[in-house]
Design a protein that fits this description.
- By secondary structure, the protein is mainly α.
- It has one domain (about 5-150): Arc Repressor Mutant, subunit A, CATH 1.10.10.60.
- About 80% of the residues lie in helices and about 0% in strands.
- Helix 4 (about 50-70) crosses helix 8.
- The protein is globular.
């Protein structure tokens, strides 16, 4: 399997399982590669470690719920695959720069600061990059399939 094919498959797997617990050992077992190889390849190809990428994606989905629902922070944390409120809050603060509670207050008061907006945009750009990566891989795979028919 080519390296970009492996990364494509990992990205799709993460997308399909984002609300569950994803581990490096589980990915290594699923894809039959050494976890250290996967980690190194993923960082090289995507620019983030697997754990950072997964956490950013989970925070992206939780932001959607924080922005558009009246769910409690605990429910949002659990619905997005975080198994403790503490870890969710810690990860949220690391990724967004404020706690989920403070973010909700800033949002309600319409007072998001530039730093928070920049952090949100960084996550949105990562999701956009991931979607483009998957789309480009799919388009290239289709072109290869079409060309192979004419050989």
């Amino acid at each position: 399997m080519r390296s970009n094919e492996l990364i494509f498959k990992i990205l799709v797997y993460i997308d399909n399982n984002i609300f569950t617990k994803i581990t490096l050992d589980g990915l290594a077992h699923t894809f039959h590669y050494n976890k250290y190889y996967i980690v190194k390849l993923f960082k090289k190809e995507i620019g983030y470690t697997l754990i950072d990428y997964i956490n950013k994606l989970k925070i992206y989905y939780s932001l959607k719920l924080l922005n558009n629902s009246d769910y409690s922070i605990l429910k949002i944390a659990i619905d997005n695959g975080f198994y403790s409120l503490e870890y969710y809050s810690e990860t949220f603060k690391k990724e967004i720069g404020v706690s989920p509670k403070k973010y909700q207050k800033m949002l309600a008061d319409r007072l998001l600061d530039q730093r928070t907006i920049s952090k949100i945009l960084e996550i949105m750009n990562l999701v956009k990059y991931k979607n483009e990566y998957i789309s480009n891989y799919n388009n290239n795979a289709k072109k290869t399939l079409v060309l192979s028919i004419f050989k």
